[in-house]
Amino acid sequence: MSDLSSAALLRLLGIMARLRAPDGCGWDQIQTFASIAPYTIEEGYEVADAIRSDNLPALQDELGDLLFQVVYHAQMAQEAGAFDFAAVANTIAEKMIRRHPHVFGDAAARDAAAQTAAWEVQKQAERKARQETGTLAGIPTALPALTRAEKLAKRAARVGFDWPHVDAVFDKLAEETAELKAELAAADKARLQDEFGDMLFVMVNLARKLDIDPEESLRGANAKFERRFNAVETTLAKQGLSPADAGLEAMEAAWQHVKRQES
Question: Is residue 139 situated within a structural domain?
Answer without folding.
Answer: no
